[in-house]
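Look over what follows to help learners.
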Amino acid sequence: MADLLADYPRSAGTYHELLDSKGRVREHWQRLYQQLQRSTPAQIQQRQALVSRQIQENGVTYNVYADPEGADRPWELDLLPNLIPANEWQQIAAGVAQRATLLNQVLADIYGPQELIAEGLLPAELIFGHNNYLWACQGIKPPGGTFLHFYAVDLARAPDGRWWVTADRTQAPSGAGYALENRQIISKAWPDLYRDLHVQYLASFFRNLQDTLAREAPAQDETPLVVLLTPGRFNESYFEHVYLARQLGYPLVEGSDLTVREATVYLKTLAGLRRVHAVLRRLDDDFCDPLELRTDSELGVPGLLEAVRQGRVLVANALGSGVLESPGLPGFLPAISEKLLGEPLLLPSIASWWCGEPPVLEEALEKMPSLVLRSCFPSQKFTPVLPGELDAAKRAELMARLKARPYVYVAHELAQLSQAPVWEEETANLQARPIGMRVFAVASADGYRIMPGGLTRVAADADAEVVSMQRGGTSKDTWVLGARVAGNEPWQGVRPVGTADLVRSDPFLPSRVVENLYWFGRYSARCEDSARLLRIMLGRYVDDDAPQALDAALCLGERLGLLPAEDDDLVSLEQRLFEALLGADWPASLQANLQRLIWTAGSVRGKLSQANWQALLELQREAQELQKPNGDVGESLDFLEGLLMSLAALSGFALDDMTRDDGWRFLIIGRAIERLQFMAESISGFLRHAAAQDQSALEWLLELGNSSITYRTRYLAFAQLIPVLDLLLLDEQNPHAVIFQLRNLLRSLDYLGERFDYSDDGALVALERQLSSFKLSSLENVLFGASSIEAVLDGLAGLLDDIALAAGQASDNLGLRFFVHVDASKRTLST
């Protein structure tokens, strides 16, 4: 592979990370380049396959809006890391730490004495006109005096090799979790290189974050509880929220998981309300409190700002910090740095001109053909434009707009991005792509600490002028080379854990997560039951030699709401069956329930193992295939067979792959209630049909209860009513039997009673006694010539209806008590 650089571009006026000005491989890249030269294309491909496999297995995603893959778009990671030598990194780190310190002081001033505005160092229009300047936060001093706990800065390298700041990220910076995940993957792809190059570890950065939040949280004598607040699974970086919550050991919460009582923030858990001392937010400023900020927000916590105002909770970063992300601000930072720090900026921003000052406007107008024009405020819906690329008429229109409201706009130079090598599989050689680098800082007791690495973002096209993950860009791991710093070892936990610290259940399990686990259990069982019944109906539809059995199955499908009734749009039976399978508008269709299952799974992703999540991803792919109707009954039957196998795998993970904690308990309760209701209602409906004693109908009833093999093994005979009912109703060893699920549910309710002082109304206990005391011999007497069999079967069906109804009531009671926290007295009054 000596010709790796055969097609590598060497464009003049561009800084190349790999090559110097004479086209030679830079010294700090030599070791990696030699490794590539010694490798065959097959070996490189093997490493690339490892990276892709790790991303898939770890479920690393980045949601791109309007992308066909939606919320499941895999994270893009290039095989080759970006290398930064130690001496260069020291300069970058010093500049980022200085900038973070400066911006923290700017926030303290604009929400405090506002001396910078009074002295003319900051234009009032830039601050007070910005959406994220929150007047309600004026005068608030956060605990510990830190406004900017977590900071990120986007850097680009100029042709002369210097780094320039292109953007400040002060509101809820993203990317640190992806940087850590990139490191986990790429270090495995190049283990020898990672060791030999002495790549700096990232762990100390996250330990510093933990320490800072714990130290500054207003916990008094309590152990501080820190939560990570996410806008939810539709956010583009939701994977990172889940990942960081796991790594930091923080509960991942949404706004509905928190409540404010008497200016104190609480987390709603199964055991009741637990005080929250600090909130690491990934939610934009104005969405955080619908009472005082954005009233249409459904993502925030009503009353959060009042809790902040009274110093009862730490919010990181401080509310209102997003005002510093204005692209009009960087041009004023050099003078502010001299004022507040007494020193020049170490990392300059890319040249910019805020057009709100007449002399600056005139200068910007002269240079406008070579600049980029942007809006200073998020409320201004204005896409950045290159005036030099507009025709005369459009440019004149733009200039008139700028002159009418000059304070709204900022003009800046277009960043000249450096080029870094990427591995191109098709040509089996190196290509160059523009890159930018996001670097992270965290406040500590002795100043800002910088992550020794970062998130390198790679443009999708070789001639791109902007690097954006939303525009199809990829990422690189960033390796800072040199001697490893003491105390910067890999992640080993925050503190030693002794016997007094042992925990065997999650004490901060949010009620919402438990509710979703409960419904995860219900929907997984519901999908399995629906798939079995659909397989029965489709199978009997194809094999129509037992019309009475088919009619019984169809009647049951209609009774349970799975099969639509015949109407003007769905005349034929085949149309109705496919609607039950694929109907996007039919609420009980298998497709609709699979979508609900995947939705709830995404909401509890942090509680599922990697293998469990992989099974769900496979199930999701199957569900997407289900959305492609082809009208072929045979293919639909094959699909249902495969789906039942996948759903069985989910059951196995629930029983064998999850810790038996409170979340697992509610998942099992959800499965038990769903299975109990389904089997009770199915057998009840079957017993009321004329085919209740038909052999073919009894055979599909066994299939519905997943008990056909057990029956054949025991009886070596065709299906008969009494042994079928014994197996599906009264056999306490059969996990699909009504009595098994009923007793399983009662044991779980007893556990909740002991653990949470929860009491049920006792209806299920009484019904269990009635079912246990049912004598099949009474049915036997009827079959051998006693009184009417219909009366006995109807009585048994009524008992099963009562069981299904009581199971539904138990579900409602659980929801009121544990999910919406309505106590028993209020539940009694409401009924």
Notes: Residues 824-831 have pLDDT under 50 and may be disordered. The longest strand covers residues 429-444. The radius of gyration is 32 Å. The first helix runs from residue 30 to 38.
